[in-house]
């Protein structure tokens, strides 16, 4: 019976570890409250920050800015490249914007304030595919991102995650009750 106990202990430990590692993270853009602004130099750009970060599905990005004079626009790759603020996919101007990254692939953000995007207040966030587990290389200039166009990514939803957690816990619980 002792060995079964060890196996189940290992299962429970593994499950808890998995849960910790796969927990969704919150990213404050640029790592500080003042970061959503025109960068002072190219090396200070938000893309430098974004490329250092590993974004995964269900992570949340948070922008802090003064809602009176700035906003966040999610735009297409083309509108990102041209700083076209006229028809964003989504726009936020509440000063404390949270966006959940619910699928893999690139997300394009520009400032909605006139002239800011042209001066570098823009950012590409690439969410890793759950299949490849590695961050694809991106270049600041738009290039064909064929990797993201090869059909729908198999993205686990949080609902499916919760279900698998519940199933796992049930199995472990009954295993424990029956064998120990
Ligand atoms: C910006 O986008 C709109 C809508 O897609 C388009 O009509 C317009 O020509 C674009 N402007 C520029 C400068 O590209």
Automatic annotation (TrEMBL):
This protein's UniProt keywords: Cell membrane, Disulfide bond, Glycoprotein, GPI-anchor, Lipoprotein, Membrane, Signal
Any GO molecular function: electron transfer activity
Main location: membrane
Lipid bilayer topology: Lipid-anchor; GPI-anchor
Keyword Lipoprotein: yes
Source organism: Thalictrum thalictroides (Rue-anemone)
Localization annotation: Cell membrane
Name under which the protein is recorded: Early nodulin-like protein
UniProt family annotation: Belongs to the early nodulin-like (ENODL) family.
SUPFAM superfamilies named among the record's database cross-references: Cupredoxins
Signal peptide: 1-24
GO cellular component: plasma membrane; side of membrane
């Amino acid at each position: 019976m002792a060995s079964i106990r060890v196996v189940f202990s290992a299962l429970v430990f593994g499950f808890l570890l998995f849960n910790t590692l796969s927990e969704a993270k919150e990213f404050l853009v640029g790592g500080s409250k003042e970061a959503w602004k025109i960068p002072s130099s190219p090396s200070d750009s938000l893309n430098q920050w974004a490329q250092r970060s590993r974004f995964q599905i269900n992570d949340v990005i948070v922008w802090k800015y003064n809602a009176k004079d700035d906003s966040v626009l999610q735009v297409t790759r083309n509108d990102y490249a041209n700083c076209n603020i006229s028809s964003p996919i989504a726009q936020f101007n509440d000063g404390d914007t949270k966006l959940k990254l619910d699928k893999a692939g690139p997300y394009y953000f520009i400032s909605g304030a006139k002239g800011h995007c042209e001066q570098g207040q823009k950012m590409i966030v690439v969410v890793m595919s759950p299949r490849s587990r590695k961050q694809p290389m991106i270049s600041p200039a738009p290039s064909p991102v064929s990797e993201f166009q090869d059909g729908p990514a198999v993205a686990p939803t949080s609902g499916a995650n919760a279900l698998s957690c519940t199933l796992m816990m049930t199995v472990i619980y009954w295993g424990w009750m029956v064998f120990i």
